[in-house]
Amino acid sequence: MNKLRAALVVGVTAAVTLAGTPAFANWQSSISSWTDGNESRNWDDESYSEVRFKGCTAQYGSEKVTVKLWKAIDLYPDDSQGTHLFTNCYNGSTSVSAGEWTGLDSGSYYFETSTVGDGGGLLDADVVYVDTTQAD
Fold it and tell me: What's 5's DSSP letter?
């Protein structure tokens, strides 16, 4: 009976420890018919974020998209962290464009397709990946 109780305590302790561990903010999705001003979902981050698009196609415009990273701020205007121009992801289904932002404060972030093509175009991306781990 003591072995069973000990195993139960260890199992519950492990579950509580894992539940208290923060989840990684990395995530993957896709984009369909995004235009100027469309926004991603938010993620929590500190120090570093990378946004990657893979397998892009353009409708109604040139093959480029400006990606802007924002820090979400409650009750105030959000804070722009700068932009990156993505063009390489249009060079085939395995081609990737990436932008890195470093030195970020701890907080909630999201990206926006601020300009698609020359403005008003539509963007499709087979894979969108957000990476918050600079070490990889």
Answer: H
40, 129 Cβ separation under 8 angstroms: no
Which of 37, 10, 24 shows the shortest CA–CA distance to 132? 24
CB atoms closer than 10 angstroms to residue 122? 19
Instruction: Identify the CA nearest to 62 among candidates 111, 113, 119.
Output: 119
Structure tokens at 43: 């993620």
Residue type, 67: V
b or e along 22-42 (b: 16 or more beta carbons within 10 Å of the residue's beta carbon)? Answer: eeebeeeeebeebbbeeebee
pTM given for the model:
0.81
Instruction: Look at residue 7 and tell me whether its pLDDT is greater than 70.
Output: no
Neighbours of 112 (CB within 10 A): 19
